[in-house]
Amino acid sequence: MGSWMKMIKELTIRPKGKRQIRKSPAYSFDEDLKKPLSGQTVKEILSKSSDVVFREFFLQGKDRIPCMLVAVDGLVDKNLLDEFILKPLMVDFAGHPELAQMTLSNVIDKTMESLLPGIEIKKISKMGDAIDTILSGDSVIFFGNLTEAIVIGARGWAHRGVAEPITESIVKGPREGFSETLRINTSLLRRKIKHPSLRIISLKLGDMTNTDLVVTYIEKIASPDIVSEVFKRLSKIKMDAMLGNGYIEEMIEDNPYSPFPQISFTERPDVLAGKLLEGKVGIIVDGTPIVLVVPAILTQFLNVNEDYYQRAMVAILSRFVRYVGAFVAIVAPSVYIAVTTFHQEIIPTDLFMSISAGRQGVPFPALLEAFTMTVVLEILQEAGLRLPKPIGQTIGIVGALIIGDAAVTAGLVSPLMVIIIGLTAVASYAIPTFDLSLAVRLIRFPLMILAGVLGFFGVTVGLYVILIHLLGLRSFGVPYTSPIAPLRIRALLQDTFVRAPWWALKRRPQLMDVEDPRPNGKG
Amino acid sequence: MGTTFLPVASIVTGVGGRDGWMSVLPGFAVGIPYCLMILSLSEQYPRKNLLQISAAVFGKWIGNFIGLIYILIVAYLGGLLLGQVGDIYQASIMPLTPLWVFFLGGIFLVLFLIKSGIEVFARFSEVVFPLIVFALLLNVGLSIPRIEQGELLPILSEGFKPLFLGAIKVIPFVMTYMLFLAGVIAFLPTGKQELSQLKKGVWRIIFLVGILDALVVLIQLLVFGPAETIRLVYGLLVLGKLVEVSRTVAGVESLFLGVWLSAAIIKIGSLFFSVIWGLESVFGLKGVKWRHAIAVVFLGISFRFIRGPALITEIGLVDEYLTMPFVALWIPILWGVSRWKRGAGN
Fold it and tell me: In this complex, do A461 and B124 lie within 8 Å of one another by their Cβ atoms?
């Protein structure tokens, strides 16, 4: 009994002040990694995996040097290895004067200097580096029993091409989006910002997955404090697996218990470039087309990249619609409940009579009616989200038209309630960011309960609690509600509720402290 | 500006009649020299609140005695204002809801705001202030069709005496702000540039609030006439009830009360902070349990005065006979003695 209790305690109690990460039973190559580098040991470690290829051959120099090329099938470009690595070494350079001088002691230097034509070639001397590079897709050549080896960058695997992102589609603007391959993503970014101050710093995370990621920022613009904070938080992550950006997001955000997203994401190189030029920092994880951008502020979740491709007046109108939509999506059901339950005086008599007639025969109170309909809406959204597109549309039609109409005809809900819920759904689609939309969906429910119990007083208390919570949030040290509070008038007028014309955007938005506030170094 | 704009019309018209609206701005302007004195003390004693400065200038015993009076006044006033939240909601839009619901809702918001810290408190005020101004202007603007110009005339028929009497009634409101400023100065920047900005801010905000409150009194006077304005303690809410926009939205008082609640929370929160700082400075008491104790005290006071007229009378008495004399004497004497000591030291 005691041991059971102890086990339950160990599983449930979280040590104070520490973020606990449950790891799988330790399985490491620590002992092997301590051994000196040699082709034979590498073969012992990796030979149980059928996808690892060991190609053994000889270089005929002054001595006959045994060589072994190790690579992972499917992660390397075989043509490149055959044509530019193996063929030159084994066939083309046979009888070459350099090769004739070659002995086991100078083989690595001579090969790198004179024989191998590739760009990405380097020397390694640690077992850990060898294993990592092989499993990451590079090829390694071992020579005899030497404790050094040559790494050849010949990565090449099947990957999705550059396609238009589904979650950030636009009418007027570039169509390219990030893919799952890290290097393609960095190249897309580099094509946008051809400046030496663009920094792309590589890291690895995940003890087992060894996932590659890069932190990118513009050195002359991004605040050094924010950059160092990003590295600090990333360095604290200790996990077995890092299979996507979501893992990092939860580990580095400021307040993990808040429903509001504190890290933004994008699938578009142009958006990432724009954010970096504002002084933000991007985190690109290999294996996912979604790039994390920090710090994030609330208002940016309501702005979309198309705002910058449309004319200013059109962008202002679009933003206004989105802000109104977000507000309606949050408060519409709760206001309906408060008005019909407590504050009928706010509605003129004629309108009230009309609403009252619509509710005739509805057996439920407004709170239960709205709550049920909102839950149904959530179910429909959840059901439609992950189904194949044609079926998803059918679910929408069945849910919205057939169930809604049947519920009104059966007298279970009032027609106005259906309109309110429909309006709420449409308004929440006006929120361009999925993460913020989820937060809005979440906070709608407590507001509805408060409205049903305490009327406008409850709604007001709920909204102020949300406001105070938002005002206290920070993303990497930057106040989440900036530039509204703390008030930064220029940022507010330039690129928050409105988007000033490009010719008026003389300085960076100054949502945070940036190194160089001028957009083009002149201002 | 806190909760001033609801009762101000009734109060100044009560003593100043139809000319009472003109006394609001001069009444608020009295706050300017007090603010400047506090900022000057802050310059001399950076990162200290007025209670700590008092202890430094007058000695520990007198300083602690002043601190004790300060704590009693701000705690009592805070509790009364919390009571006003329940009183106004129940009297105007939710007569069937028990008072304790509003008290608990109010104190919950205040505690949440206090827990979030002074920075969030400042940001909350920053966000809410434009909303209050907008709501006031909307309420005033929508009432314009009901104006009867004759209510304002004759102007100054009884000379300048009503203005003086009205201003005397407004001064306690300003003195309440000084109580908060006395505590918050420890958190304000003390650089020369920042202090100069703060001084400019004081002028701006006092004139802005004074003009808005004068406008609120004026519109009530023009719509209701002097007699009704005096009788209606929360006349602005009655104005909201009269509003009708294109036969779609009829009474905006419930919406207006939502905005007023934020103002009330700021004012109660500022008094709550003042109690915290007072307890810290005088008795060295700090921590979450003392915050909860203060909340219990606030709730206790708010439950004690549950009826509208009694509550309003009590707030008026505290303002006139405790807050005003205390602040009116404390700050100038402290400023004068500190300057004298500095002069003598040189």
Answer: no
